[in-house]
C-alpha cells in the first residue's frame, strides 16, 4: 500500500529515493514505532525527507494521501472569520464532558464536509455547527474531547486535526523568508575549524591514549570547533529600500547570528568613496572605502544587499550620486570590491521577475558577473553554495 504513497511524494516534487523507501519499510517491519498514524508520520518524514526545506511539501502530500484535513478542503472552502471569533467560554463539569459524543476520525471528516455545505451563519456555544466556545467538534475554544480545531487557539488540547497549524509552512523554496528560515539557508556557508586553546574533551583521543597507557587515564583536550568564515556585508539603506526594511532586517539578524566573524557597513543605492555603520550619524562617522578594501583579507566572503533600483547614472557616471558629487563612478568601486574579494554575491529583495524591467538592475548584474540572487529560500541557498565553493 505504501508504493502509491511513495509515488505521491515524487509527484509533490519531494526528492525521495528507493533506498530511503526501503529503510522506511524495514523500520516498519521491525516495529520501531507503535501502529498510529501520528508515529508513522514522524517515521516517514525522518526516513524520506533529507532537507527541512521540503517539510511543508511533505505535510501536504501526506495529508492528501491519507485523506487528512487537506483533502476535506481540496476545493479551498473558506470559513468566514466571523464564525471563528470567540466571545464566550463555556465551562463543563467532568460529568458533562464524559457525556459528549466521540465521532471517530472518519465520521469527523464526513460530518465536517456536510457542515461546510449546510452552514450559512455564525454559531457560538452550540453542539453542532462550526463555531466557538461550545461542545461542537468543529471550531475552537470549545470543550469537545475529540474534534477538529479550525482557527484560534486550542481549548482542551484534544483536537484530532488542526487546520491551520502546519509547523513548516515557510520552508517552501519559492516563498520569502523569516529570520528562522534565513538561518537555515545561510548555514550552507558555515565552515568549522578547531582553533584557539584546548578546552574541549577529545573523547576518541582520550580513549586511544588511555589504552596505550596500560589503562591509566590519559585525558586529551582539543580546541572547540568554531565557524571561521569571515563575512563582509554591505547593505543599501533608504530610498526604494524602505519597501524592504522588514526582510532586510530579518536577513541581517540571521546573518549576525550565523556568522560570528561578520562585519557590516551601509551605503545608499551604490557604493562610492565612503560607507558608514550608524545611519543616524552617517555624515559624522564615515569610513573611507579604501580602508575597507585594505583592511579585510581576500578570503572574506562579500555580500551586497540591495534592490539595485536607481538611475543608471548613479552607477556609471562620476557625480551621479543623488546625495553628493562623487569623483569616481559607482561602477569603479564595485569592480574594486569584486577584484579584492573573489567570493562575492548580490542579494536582491525585489522579486526576480521584476529585474528585467529595471535598467539599473541589469547594470549591477553585469558588474556582479550575474551573481545576483533573490531573497528567497532557493535564492539564498544558491548564493551560499556559490560562496562556499
Question: Which terms summarize this structure?
Answer:
389 residues, five-stranded parallel beta sheet, 14 strands, extended
Number of helices: 15
Low-confidence stretches: 68-77, 83-90, 151-176
End-to-end gap? 43 Å
Helix/strand-derived category reads alpha/beta
Average per-residue pLDDT, rounded, comes to 75
Largest sheet, spatial ordering of strands: 1-2-3-4-5
Order of helices and strands: HHHHHHHEEEEEHEHEEHEEEHEHHEHEH
- Which outline best applies? extended
Tally of strands:
14
Radius of gyration: 28 Å
Sheet having the most strands: 5 strands, parallel
Percent strand equals: 15-25%
Helix content: 25-40%
Describe the structure.
The two termini are 43 Å apart. Helix 2 runs antiparallel to helix 3. This protein has 15 helices and 14 strands. Helix content is 37%, strand content 16%. The radius of gyration is 28 Å and the shape is extended. It is an alpha/beta fold and 389 residues long.
